[in-house]
Protein 1
Amino acid sequence: MITKLDEAQRAALLPALGGWTHEPVRDGLARRFVFADFVAAFGFMTRVALLAEKADHHPEWSNVYNRVEILLTTHDAGGLSLRDIELARAIDAVAEGAKG
């Protein structure tokens, strides 16, 4: 069973997620990524899609030209869970690789 993070867990884990913000209405993590162009943004989304599928944890996202906006929340837990934190870290690693 996947459990929702409690306040102590959030306080310990969220500060390390630099570009992510807590989205209180959906109780999730939100972040906007900006790339050089559409091809770079779409390539990033493709890499994230592959790792999300492997983790069986799928983001809510949108893409407009060079921007990708992502929301991570665990529906089964009713909000933010450790799965979201782990996927956010993995997405950040993909984004870092896309820059270089």
Protein 2
Amino acid sequence: MMEAEVLLETRSLTLGYGERTVVNTADLCVRAGELVALIGPNGAGKSSILRGVVGLLKPKSGAVLLFGRALSEWNRRNLACTVTLMPQHAPVPQLYTVEETVQLGRTPFLGFWGTATPHDREVVERTLDAFELTGLRDHPVGELSGGEYQRAALARAFAQEPRLLLVDEPTAYLDIHHQISTLGRLHNSARTEGMGILAVLHDLNLASAFSDRIILLSEGCILRDGDPGSVLMSPEFARTYGSSVRISPNPESPNRPLVLPRHPVGTENPQPGSDAPASGTPASGDRSARSSE
């Protein structure tokens, strides 16, 4: 069986702000057809990796390869037609309607006169429907709820029809129905359209349920890269999250374990250090287990 095309690869990527290093020699890849979740504590460097991939944060060292070509070889238009970044708090003009916002996703493809083609209009209609925004198409985004605003920003990213999609906290502000439908749509788009998706996720259960691989990042270093079970049950995960969580088997999907609070409200909270951290035996098939020094 042929291995899927590598859409994104970083080699010893080091990123920082001024003298401060936030990502240290990161090696990762995203292949066509897979959804990769990037997890880790606040300040681990997850958002910085997304910014570095598209050139918004200049590397201190290392390399970014997109479809086998160095990032420096891409002009901005070709990059925008191929790769989409949806950052946290994606900026959307407040007076634009939802439909106009989604239409912005087609901007890289418009000709000199900026005229939309029938295909552009069809993409916008399809995307409005997919994100349950058809009934809100004429509403200014400034009047939307947080969850509606987030769905409009996601729809704009999808309307760009990227081959590589980078999303930072795509489920922020969404209710459970839209969290599930959004990540289901991301996962299905990767499988059916051959997209590669790298998603920063803080909800570890959603990462476990929907990702093909999970990359664990802590203090700027990649500690583990593998399928959900091998990462969430690894010693590296236990050391990163400590005794605050425990890993439980998922009866419906053994390699997609559940992440639960170790001391939920109403239970006795033992003295610090008296409880063992979350742990487990890594599953077979783990791609890598490299700690950066």
Protein 3
Amino acid sequence: MAASEAPKIATGEPVALALGAGGARGLAQIGVIEALQARGLNIVAIAGSSSGALIGGVFAAGKLEEFRTRLSEMTRGEFLRLIVEPSFAQDGLVRGDRLVDAMREVVGDPLIESLEVDFVAVAVDLIRQREVWLRTGPLWQALRASFAFPGVLTPARVHGRDLVDGGLLAPLPIAATRMSDAHRLIAIDMHGWPVRPAGLPADVYVDVDAENESGQRSAVGRWITRHMDRVRGDDQGLAGMSLTEVLGRSVDTMQGQIARVQMALDPPELVIRIPRDACQFYEFWRGRELIEVGRREAEKALDAAGY
């Protein structure tokens, strides 16, 4: 049965959410969750990959409102000061400890098994080349593993395994929701049709404010500035993109295709799609704007489905 032909989800009926990977676009899923709750849908289970795991874990911990407030207040400079924490290891540019600590202050660090909402964070075991579903243990240990983007954040060591971003194999973790008691599934696809014409990059230029206490830009800050700024000029196509934009588009292409296959094999009752050009994958400081994008797209999907 196709998703569009599935029985309608009744108000108050238990539903599961599959929250997708998509870098900063994942923040739009805050607005999606708020829109679903406003329609009276009862979210009892969540599986998330990467930034989808982050949002799902925060919601399951009952701290989505506090997290939303903190995120909306965060400036670009503040975010970059949290993330520019160079790693001297060979398996990632930054450790991410400072960023995780800042989020932990808002959310706390409960055990996953103590959460009121059934929650699964999906990560990938690089050695065994398979998905890992994290259903127990410290919440932030699981989240850190699920959003450990390879080459950028160092892998997370969990139970003797080196784990990285769940979006590599499960950008839309539908299968991980099927262990819940919910009979209906809502999937948030982060690779929806772009708002801009195909091939036109988002008109965003980044001026990175990554300075150390002495006011001098660090070597890491200079590296980020050089690789996050798009090449200006008359060149078109890939020649006019920065390193990070090429990387982001490449990952999006891979994840979008995998997500489409996952939905074809196991159709959800409702799919809410976030435009894949809503932002660049590293623009986490645009939280307030992205939350509204998620709310708008969720309301459109719910209206179209008659909820």
